[in-house]
Amino acid sequence: MKSRDWVRLFISTLVVGGVSTVILGFMIRWSEYQPLFIEGKWGEVLSVMFWLLGVGFIFSVISQMGFFAYLTVHRFGLGIFKGLWKAVQVILIVFVLFDLVYFRYLWFAEADDRIFAYLSYPLILLLFGLLVAYIKATQTNQQAFIPALFFMIVVTTIEWVPALRANEESWLSFMLLPLLICNSYQLLILHRLIKKS
In the chain, what are the domain boundaries? Predict the structure, then answer.
């Protein structure tokens, strides 16, 4: 790929992350921001919008670092594990999904919490990952399914660690959704940029 295409990918992912975080930020915290719209405090609305845009840029950069790290790890995995790399990725996917349920329950559960309450985020990750991996496989080839699923689940979870450690409900979804959007965008646009260059 040409350096111009890398720059285009960086800037477009930055825009996707910023815009999606602004939209999702207002949606997720609508009860908090609705009075600003009702009372016509447009200066405050703009300052919130710029703050969300900045946070979205940060999420986008985190996503891009994870993406480029994954591309490197994937090459190493192919070299080290050869034909077993797909199996290793599947094992890591299962391990990460299990840990998202078990360790969050172990560390953050209240006395009356049930473990099933901690299934929602891993299920969202799995379903979204399956959808993006399916689209990637249909657009390229079937060999891309497992690597795409691995990226969408394992790498997104690693990028999501700051919110997981805080365990604040609004921050969990506020960070996860833009990361999923940025990661899926990069994954689905990469082969087009490579084909183009």
Answer: 3-196
